[in-house]
Specification:
The complex is a heterodimer of chains A (559) and B (160). By secondary structure, chain A is α/β, with parallel strands linked by helices. Chain A folds into 3 domains: 2-168, 3-Layer(aba) Sandwich (Rossmann fold); 189-343, 3-Layer(aba) Sandwich (Rossmann fold), CATH 3.40.50.1220; 358-531, 3-Layer(aba) Sandwich (Rossmann fold), CATH 3.40.50.970. In chain A, 37% of the residues lie in helices and 16% in strands. Chain A is built from 22 helices and 20 strands. In chain A, α4 (75-89) links the parallel β4 (67-71) and β5. In chain A, α3 (49-63) packs across α17 (414-424). The N and C termini of chain A lie far apart (73 Å). The relative contact order of chain A is 0.11. Chain B has 160 residues and is α+β, with helices and mostly antiparallel strands. Chain B has 2 domains: 3-76, 2-Layer Sandwich (Alpha-Beta Plaits), CATH 3.30.70.260; 83-153, Alpha-Beta Plaits (2-Layer Sandwich). Chain B has 4 helices and 9 strands, in the order βαββαββαββαββ. Chain B has helices at 16-27, 55-67, 96-109, 129-139; strands spanning 3-11, 30-38, 44-52, 71-76, 82-93, 112-116, 120-127, 144-149, 153-156. In chain B, strands 5, 6, 7, 8 and 9 form a 5-stranded antiparallel β-sheet that branches. A 4-stranded antiparallel β-sheet of chain B has the order 2-3-1-4, with helices on one face. In chain B, a hairpin with a 5-residue loop joins β2 (30-38) and β3 (44-52). In chain B, α3 (96-109) packs antiparallel against α4. The longest helix of chain B is centred in the middle third of the chain and has 14 residues, at 96-109. The model of chain B has no long low-confidence stretch (mean pLDDT 93). The chains are: A alpha/beta (559), B alpha+beta (160). Chains A and B meet through loops of A and α1 and α2 of B.
């Protein structure tokens, strides 16, 4: 006989868990106590529970494995919520464990009691309140299976204190019986035939690779499809890295802050092949005006995504790796014309028009970063202008090297996600691209970096403002700036020192390369701050209700 | 908007109803009625949902329901030959003078009187929506004191 907490830890070990990001508390005492004895599982103590959820999510995205986080009941559990929602929106496999007050106290508004299964219901793929210790092996097995299969997502287990404490015999659960959960993996044969037919007929096909390509590990199939037929590829934010950015067929990110040629390609194509994406409003712009000349072929593992936002002329449900292999078996032989090449020049015109600026231009920082970053570097970002500059300009070469909060747009994600990525790959460089606003939401987790000796490389795009909101105010509030300029900022250099980090600062463009070289070479935690003016906005930009071809290139610049 | 009737088999477990109801609320779908109860298999409950919406909404409702781990099977039985039943309990004012007339009316509808008070009767009725509606209308002139009705349960006719 052993306590539920030890049974839980054994189950986690059987699932191959190597690391848990957590924060202890009364209702999770037994679980931490049991973890202490595990030779396999490392427990990383974060500084706030949200950091634990983000770290688990960063770990999952870097490694492809299911991330695990753990918190106590009440505030511990509610602090996880933003991280769980972030993972849910971006379909990240995670198992979230919360302590709960003892079963007998549930429903009495006990100290640190909160109905976390109720609260998390809309933002989890599934959740469980464990009522009996004997259920633990089955529930843990189901949780990992549900989190990691089909369209991945977070699954929450709420474990009352008495369940962790009560004694039982450990009986491994060997088989699953989930009659209500059976993801469709193989594509319908009739639909596959139609896919081939549509591809054959198309003269200007375009592939849009989303996060689903990365979760399904279908990047090789994607590349094969694109090269074999000579079809260009655009990426959603979540799909970045699924095709090497410098590949001649890669057109970069589409969407509200997408690259001009990517957006124009969408508007000019006659077949839009959507792979593992969900037509988010930041991707489509005005849905009515989206890809007006194109038939839409939508391939996704989640049938509920097909037809939700954009009508699909040809829907196909399945696992992308399997479905793409099915398609590749019967591909037509003829290559397509290079129909998109006429769109290539647009970008160059746009970049030239800003190069006359004084001081550092944000795109120069990204370009300089590209010069020093090795291909295996993992980049995490926060949310805001820096994120979009990074997404537009980074020369990503591999999947799972760009980790960013897409759907929820969660500031404060970058540093803890970086911690997770670094735990997954201790030897690879992990670079956190953040802004002065987002950085201040992530500061507590510098404590975790210090304690765990994690050599994160943090670069702060410091324009002394919440730049993206400022940009929205430029365009939607007639330039009235409210609550976006920081009148006073802490000295990030002193802060860096307090956390034992090397501190670097760049104010002039000439210093960029040299400081970035130092930044990337430093073996420990390093914080590099780059200062530039807040008047720089992210362009091109698609304003509300506009189509993707109606981008603006500056405050008063349209094409 | 067309009303659709969905027969949904779910795991008979605590929390399933709130998962389904929550899904409808947060996705902005309108439930006209929802009835849930155990089936011939103790581990399975059956929900009969009446939802208003166009084809696209119903398709989304169905797909989103299907994503719930506890949902085993969904059938849109709107266009099937079905037997539909609702149940009604209605307390109606009935003094001596009205009583006879009400009893005759209820005879026609084949309803049962299940309680007799000094000034009121409780009537129990089952039937499809049209019949229930007709009963309520016929009793309205006497003065309805209290009314409670279930949502619809449906079953497809014949062997399928």
């Amino acid at each position: 006989m052993e306590p539920g907490a030890e049974i839980l830890v054994k189950c986690l070990e059987k699932e191959g868990v190597e690391v848990i990001f957590g924060y202890p508390g009364g209702a999770a005492l037994e679980i931490f106590d049991a973890l202490h004895q595990s030779p396999q599982i490392k427990t990383v103590l974060v500084r706030q529970e949200q950091g634990a959820a983000h770290a688990a999510s960063g770990y999952a995205r870097a490694s492809g494995k299911t991330g695990v986080c753990l918190a106590t009941s009440g505030p511990g559990a509610t602090n996880l919520i933003t991280g769980v929602a972030t993972a849910y929106m971006d379909s990240i496999p995670m198992v979230v464990i919360t302590g709960q007050v003892s079963s007998g106290m549930v429903g009495t508004d006990a100290f640190q009691e909160v109905d976390i299964t109720g609260i998390s219901d809309p933002i989890t793929k599934h959740n469980y309140l464990v009522k009996e210790v004997s259920q633990l092996p089955r529930i843990v097995k189901e949780a990992f299976y549900i989190a990691g299969s089909g369209r991945p997502g977070p699954v929450l287990l709420d474990i009352p204190k008495d369940v962790s404490a009560s004694l039982a015999e450990f009986k491994e659960c060997k088989s699953l019986d989930l009659r209500g959960y059976k993801p469709n993996l193989v594509g319908h044969k009739g639909q596959i035939k139609q896919v081939i037919q549509l591809i054959k007929e198309a003269q200007r096909p375009l592939v849009c690779a989303g996060g689903g390509v990365i979760s399904a590990q279908a990047e090789e199939e994607l590349l094969y499809l694109a090269e074999k037929l000579h079809i260009p590829v655009v990426n959603t934010l979540m799909g970045l890295g699924s095709i090497p950015r410098e590949h001649p067929l890669s057109l970069g990110m589409l969407g509200a802050y997408g690259l001009a040629k990517a957006n124009l390609a969408v508007q000019s194509c006659d077949l839009f092949i959507a792979l593992g994406m969900r037509f988010d409003d930041r991707v489509t712009g005005n849905v009515q005006k989206f890809a007006p000349q194109a038939k839409i072929m939508h391939i996704d593992i989640d049938s509920a995504e097909i037809g939700k936002n954009v009508w699909a002329d040809l829907p196909l449900v399945g696992d992308l790796k399997i479905v793409l292999n099915q398609i590749l078996e019967c591909l037509p032989k003829e290559k397509k014309e290079s129909w998109w090449l006429a769109l290539e020049n647009v970008e160059k015109v746009e970049i030239k028009s800003v190069e006359k600026e004084e001081g550092i231009i944000p795109s120069q920082i990204i370009a300089a970063l590209n010069d020093v970053l090795p291909a295996e570097a993992i980049i995490t970002t926060d949310v805001g202008q820096h994120q979009m500059w990074a997404a537009q300009g980074l020369n990503l070469q591999k999947p799972r090297t760009f980790i960013s909060s897409g759907g929820l747009g969660t500031m404060g994600y970058g540093i803890p996600a970086g911690i997770g990525a670094q735990e997954a790959f201790p030897k690879r460089p992990v670079v956190v691209i953040t802004g002065d606003g987002s950085f201040q939401m992530g500061i507590p987790e510098l404590g975790t970096c210090l304690e765990e000796e994690l050599p994160l490389k943090i670069i702060i795009f410091n324009n002394q403002a919440l730049g993206m909101v400022k940009q929205l105010q430029d365009h939607y509030c007639e330039g009235r700036h409210v609550s976006v300029h920081f009148k006073k900022l802490p000295k990030f250099q002193d802060l860096a020192r307090a956390y034992g980090a090397l501190s670097l600062r760049v104010e002039k463009q000439e210093e960029l390369s040299e400081k970035l070289e130092k930044f990337i070479q430093h073996p420990g935690l390093v914080i590099l701050e780059v200062l530039f003016s807040s008047h720089h906005n992210v362009y091109p930009m698609v304003l509300n209700a506009q189509g993707l071809d109606e981008m603006i290139y500056g405050r008063n610049l349209t094409r | 908007m067309v009303k659709h009737t969905l027969a949904v088999l779910v795991e008979n477990r605590p929390g399933v109803l709130s998962h389904v109801a929550g899904l409808f609320a947060r996705r902005g779908y309108n439930i006209e009625s929802l009835v849930v109860g155990e089936t011939e298999d103790q581990g399975v409950s059956r929900m009969t949902l009446v939802v208003a919406g166009d084809e696209r909404v119903i398709e989304q409702v169905t797909k989103q329901l299907n994503k719930q781990v506890e949902v085993i099977k969904i059938q849109d039985i709107t266009n099937e030959e079905t037997v539909d039943r609702q149940m009604l309990l209605i307390k109606v004012s009935a003094d001596q003078a009205a009583r006879q007339e009400i009893l005759q009316l209820m005879e026609i509808f084949r309803c049962r009187i299940v309680d007799i008070g000094r000034r009121s009767l409780i009537i129990e009725a089952t039937g499809d929506e049209g019949k229930i509606e007709a009963i309520v209308q016929s009793l309205r002139p006497f003065g309805i004191k209290e009314l409670v009705r279930t949502g619809k349960v449906s079953m497809v006719r014949g062997v399928k």
